[in-house]
């Protein structure tokens, strides 16, 4: 598996994974992915040995040099490839970018997604709040989680 920047040619495959993973909520559309790229977000894809897209993740960066903040907007792995470390690799790459900028990172995660919550906590995120009925149309709640800014040399595996 290798990681590379998300390109417009990858968006169709991302949308297909969205539909598989989030059928009870509002999966991202192609236009949502295009808008994120247009806004300058830091997006990566995971490609397998046959160049099939098996995951993707994106970090929005807001602010100005010296005062950045990151928002983990999405992270997803194809259901057939979960449990192989792809999500961990994507997350670590996004966090490395945030660490280069010394940016804290904020995210929302479904309160019933124990696998994702465990992954985020392993990487220094803490629960700081709850957003009731955040995901629509299901009405599922979300935890807001934050990882403080880190200097690159403070980050450990």
Automatic annotation (TrEMBL):
- Pfam families, from UniProt? Acetyltransf_1 (PF00583)
**NCBIfam families (UniProt xref):** rimI
Keyword annotations for this protein?
A: Transferase
In its UniProt record, a GO molecular function of this protein is: protein-N-terminal-alanine acetyltransferase activity
| Name the record gives this protein | Ribosomal-protein-alanine acetyltransferase
Which PANTHER family does its entry note? L-AMINO ACID N-ACETYLTRANSFERASE, N-ALPHA-ACETYLTRANSFERASE RIMI
N-acetyltransferase domain segment(s)? 1-150
| InterPro entries xref list | AcTrfase_RimI/Ard1 (IPR006464), Acyl_CoA_acyltransferase (IPR016181), GNAT_dom (IPR000182), MshD_Acetyltransferase (IPR050276)
